[in-house]
Transcriptional activator (FlhC) (Thiohalospira halophila DSM 15071), 164 residues
Amino acid sequence: METIEDVTFAVELIRAGLRPGVIELHTGISARRIRRWWREVHGTSPTPGPLPTGGSVLRSAARRREATDFIARYRTRGGNLRLDARRILETYRDHQQTWEDPQLTITETWALVRDAEIGALMAVECPYCGGTHYLSMTQRGPSRCPLCRHQTQDTAETMDAAES
Ligand SMILES: [Zn+2]
């Protein structure tokens, strides 16, 4: 049986737009009940379909810039990249207030941290500006540094450069 804190937290996550299946995972409250509350809060049904992948979240330079900042903030709050729904919510609120036109949804930031925790994201150090940004392990081909906009080499070579 869930506590009042679980229910309150679930509603906060619903308001932020986190997908019901993910809320169920972190609160133990059934996705069916969460979908019902979702409809009360938002007046619409949550988007169905698969959860975002790291590759889909990091599909543009603007998103990679946001993601890099989000991960840095997330790490600052707990010193590690362990997936914690409360920390996601706090970091997401902070992120929403800081970015002028944020593109990442809370479910996408959750997917980022999930991938970072299991090692499915790689940190790429840009040889031009020295900044670090993240790519999904499944992303291939040339990419542009989201910080200085230099075209970097293809992903694998960039990885080697970052490690040497
Ligand atoms: Zn750069």
